[in-house]
Amino acid sequence: MLTTDGGLLFAFQDGHYVVKFIGDVRLTLCSTIDQHLRSMLSRDDVTHTLIDLTETTNIDSTSLGLIAKLAVKSAKCDMPRPTIVSTNPDITKILYAMGFDHIFLLLEELPTSKKDLTEVPFVQESDEAVRAKIIEAHRILIDLNDKNRDEFKGLVEVLECQK
Asked: b vs e for 93-107, b when ≥16 Cβ sit within 10 Å of the residue's Cβ?
């Protein structure tokens, strides 16, 4: 069920997989995002991926790190570079600042018509599992560029000390 805080929708057709992020996408969705993207990458019939941020009002660094993980894993699977569509200038600016233009094809408008989408079910996990996903997401962001390393190194160290 989509909440007022944020949610995910997806569609799949002819090898093209679309994940649409809606609303305020925060770390409360990290387990949902991680599990869904893992499931998507385990499919043999996915040839192209598109992340639709056109209805995303806000997105945190944990969610961005998990999205970056998609690009890293896609490259390891010899899949084409995933596409991100962002029509919100504030979010687009963050994507460029985080170095996403090096691992994704970034578009500032949606090139296709809307398709029927299926909601991704919310995943609830333990605090420890969520903390591990937050650490993993930020480690991926740290590896993208020096600015991210400076920005998130302290956060990762603090979270690792809480184990």
From this structure: ebbeebbbeebbebb
C-alpha 1/C-alpha 44 separation (Å) is: 27
Give the domain extent around 88: 6-124
Q: Are 115 and 13 spatial neighbours (Cβ–Cβ below 8 Å)?
A: yes
CATH classification at residue 67: 3.30.750.24
Q: Does residue 46 form part of some domain?
A: yes
| Residues β-bridged to residue 10 | 19, 118
Q: Is residue 139 part of a domain?
A: no
For the stretch 47-81, pLDDT in tens is: 999 999 999 999 999 999 999 999 998 888 888 89
